[in-house]
């Protein structure tokens, strides 16, 4: 779709380019003297980087304009207000402005201001990651620009389009668009317009050349140098300082892959940040001053010049103040790293804790508004929590002689990891309220039942730490395997699990077993543990622990297993499944490109007989409408879906298949929550034919998130698509055990069902039974 859109837009622009008219739309026609004066003031504030004041003035301009008489000027003001809000990080306010004034743009779609309005809308939605909306507005802008033949308009559209394509790694198309922009710049007569566009275009070209393997190091560095010189030609303004900081950030990224050019890059960064700081001081822009000081401190940190780095980091913290929390937490985090590097662990813990306190209220805002399509959460948020956890573990190790203090430190570590896991779920579902969805008590006891152990694997850069909550306390085991090595082992094992030929899991399985189970086996034996609960982190979400193989046996043969999203997000009370109302739904027929599941009929019939299910929706009856009616009219304790399900990297790409549509996770959550208002939660939700992306731990995170967000106590789901005959066999055994014994836990019922297949000559391979996982309450 993206490529087709590119060809569509580029063809429009190429057709228009031949007859370009320079400078057509620099300013709406004949603004009044008062309006003109206000516009000039607003532009001055924008040049200084005071976007708050600029937005206020543009709002005053809007209030003084007559929409009917001056529609172009109204749209011009709306564009500037939306842009100011976007730069301030108020993305929803920017969207609200676009929506409020869109009706005006529709009245005259071919006016220059309407085209710029559509382009601004595209830019804002691109910043929010809403690609389809962004492309829709971009197409409207391009189609209407074709009629004007205006170079200024076409450059705006092409630049926006190119950035979108670059962010989705269509580097060739992005580069072609940017080259067209450079060609069109020759059509502009206005020096300010040339100065506005050319450096931005060159910065984007450098980004492409750096990330695209078509270019050599020499070519990238040459482009970087050329761009730096072009930026220096600009008159001093906020945009110039911002672009200098941008290329310095890019140069810092280059320092690792281009290690032999390190000194050149450091020199460029020093020069660029010094110039940017001069501009920031000139306009008394505290945010820019903070950015310059903080980034330069980061360079000194890399060079281990800690004295200078401390000095500049503290300066960055001072100038960031409380009005810039999005950068303040970065400098508090940086200060923590400096304290750690110089052996000041207690001070490091204090700085990391401050960073997390600053970060938590604004975390959701940080993960939106970035057009560079980098994983902001894993790059800029998760390392702060992991860094604090690692420091607390160091403190715990230093208090070995004081067992109570050490236990308290371990509890602090688990608190931090739970905060991280809640943050990951909130990021996945884009929902700050998710943390309150759990029904567990706010105070966590950190105690477990006899014969049960809860494992917190903490994946750090150079080691794996296993925190084990046992009936007699918390223990720490450190394994000498770094995060990248562990990730490689996990991905290899996952591929082998899903490949039945040649039993390759027997080769890769024992290594993971040695990392994850062997180091703590003696503790499990001492405590007579028969149930292991895992709170997996990162790549470890991609594998079912039940399949871990020691060379002779699978882990499920010795222990019942379950996973939890976090200790503090799990309801620990025993389940009440006696006389439960049961809803069954599923598809055996092929629908919407998905293959048929012929054994679903048998699976649903067996469960209906065992559990005396009151509601069965199958094939044509398994529709969103019928599900809505069922949930609205009865409170169910058990819900079982035997249909294709997909868990992608976001909640929007996660769904289950019904007869007539895709049931997205957001609406499924709404349905599952209905019973809560009747004081009947869903105790058990089962997806017997779902799958997650092989290398995407965020997709696996979505499985856990469904339980937490909808308030479901337990979920049984599959990590990959299972032979539906094997699925029916496991499901049958599980429900038999649940129904026949009220004393059995869900984890042990699933263990018995999986062991039945392990002992079957045809289904013994973990590909058949391994993907079934119990998530949440295991009792």
Write a short abstract of this structure:
Helices cover 58% and strands 9% of the residues.
User: CATH topology of the domain at 582-776, anyone?
Assistant: Rossmann fold
Oligomer type:
single chain
For this structure, what is the CATH class of the domain at 582-776?
Answer: Alpha Beta
End-to-end C-alpha gap: 47 Å
Gyration radius, in Å: 29 Å
Which structural category fits the helices and strands?
alpha/beta
Largest sheet: 6 strands, mixed
Q: What do you see in this structure?
A:
- The protein has 30 helices and 15 strands.
- With 779 residues, the protein is α/β, with parallel strands linked by helices.
- Among the domains are: 1-189, Serine Threonine Protein Phosphatase 5, Tetratricopeptide repeat, CATH 1.25.40.10; 436-569, 2-Layer Sandwich (Nucleotidyltransferase, domain 5), CATH 3.30.420; 582-776, Rossmann fold (3-Layer(aba) Sandwich), CATH 3.40.50.
- The strands form 3 sheets. Strands 7-6-8-12-14-15 form a 6-stranded mixed sheet, sandwiched between helices. A 5-stranded mixed sheet has the order 3-2-1-4-5. Strands 11-10-9-13 form a 4-stranded mixed sheet.
- A hairpin with a 4-residue loop joins strand 10 and strand 11.
- Helix 16 (325-341) packs parallel to helix 19.
- Mean pLDDT is 88; it is low at 14-27 and 435-442.
